[in-house]
Amino acid sequence: MMAEVISFLILLVTTCGILVGAFIQPHGYLKLPPLCAAVYAGWLLPQLWQLRGQLGNLDATYLAVLNLFFAACLFSVHIGWHWGVRAEAYQLAKTPVRVFASQRDITRVTGLVTLVAWSMWIAMGMRSLDERNETMWSGPLTIMYFFLNLKMLSMFLSTYLLLRFKSRMAVLLFLANAALYFPLVLVYFRRRAMLELFIALSLAFWFARRAVLPRVGVLLGMPVGTIVVFAVAALRGLARGDGTSEWKMPSFADISAIDFWSQTPFVSDQQYPEVTNAFYLVRLSSELGYHTFGASSWNRLVFQWVPAQIVGADLKNALMIDVDVGRALVNTFNYSGRTGSTSTAMAQAYVEFGPFGIVFFVATAYVLARWWARANRGSVWAMTLYACALPLAVIMPTSYPIVVLNFMLLYGGALWVIRFMMTDSSSERRHQRHAGREYCDVK
């Protein structure tokens, strides 16, 4: 029992320490470690607090292991970030970067990606209401939604373009992308869409104007964000109605009628299964030595990127490794998680490689830190990669270990294809000679 208390305090101190450190710099909240710590403080710790009330039914030893590994993963993000910043500083000291990006090229990229995102949104709207209201999507709808994720790329670039150049086309592109996020945030109440919009706007203001939110605003926003995150189910219930018609934006009166505080784990009797799932995964690995050694991550990539409609279900299944963690939990503990719930990236990383699962968090933070450092030296492409990866890395604790890799294959691939289509080395050198007239160097 004492070990569990100490481990929880270690996790709490680690979380608070990284959060406090973020406020040393005005733009600290734009970096990955404090944003991950905010997810811990606003989403993970409340659920752990509720889980601690069930100690009579749980083994405190494994709960202590869970707490310590959670703390180790967060600290690994902090370490990986600092390694990445130092590595990029060393690289830039040897080969200083001076990156030019024309207004024309940024506009072309933004326009093309906006067109793709809107095409996916319209195609999804043409599917039947019953299909869209399914809890678990499948088939063409999942493919459309996957490519709709490109909206984050165009949202950031359109905002940056508007703040940097203020052209009519920039205004139109910004409004087109804002229109995509409007229903996702205010009708469907998608947590990830809310986070993406906040990060896209915040980073665009930082990179284009070096403008930041006041520290007081960030501090006040954290508890509000926590309450909203746990009240999303109630908000969606208002928007969904009876489920037989299209979703609609709830009225202010309906939203005001929700008792938001009662939705949080501090006072609610409702079970929040994510941390409970994580507990049983850690117990499975610790008690039985059950590890998948990367098989689960490989299967995730195959599931996401190999289309059964094209290559056939047999080939897709043949590429996947036969591991079933859910079946192991049922056979060992007679426990099965709630449908649609996650088990946290930390617990999945522990099942993959035990304590060495922290490598997922170190690697993710290291790569993002290098993009951050390069973006602050003027690389528009590094800015875009960082803006697309940051929301994924922030939700990583609530999702799975390779969520950043999975989606950055989409974002990075899209950018690479577009840049390849636009690249002309001779004209690029000619444009750089006339940088004062056509190009901007973002400082």
Characterise the protein shown here.
With about 450 residues, this protein is an all-alpha fold. The chain has helices spanning about 1-20, 30-50, 60-95, 105-125, 130, 140-150, 150-165, 170-185, 190-210, 215-240, 250-255, 275-290, 295-305, 310, 315-320, 325-335, 345-355, 360-375, 380-395, 405-420, 425-435, 435-440, and strands at about 100, 440. It has a domain at about 105-255. It is built from 22 helices and 2 strands. A two-stranded antiparallel ribbon has the order 1-2. α2 packs across α10.
Distance between the termini: 53 Å
What is the ordering of alpha helices and beta strands?
Answer: HHHEHHHHHHHHHHHHHHHHHHHE
Spatial strand arrangement across the major sheet: 1-2
Helix/strand-derived category reads mainly alpha
Please tell me what the overall shape is: globular
- Number of beta-strand segments: 2
- Helical content (DSSP H or I, runs of 4+): over 70%
Average pLDDT figure: 86
Computed over alpha carbons, the radius of gyration is 23 Å
Our estimate of the beta-strand percent is under 5%
Q: Number of helix segments?
A: 22
Biggest beta sheet attributes = 2 strands, antiparallel
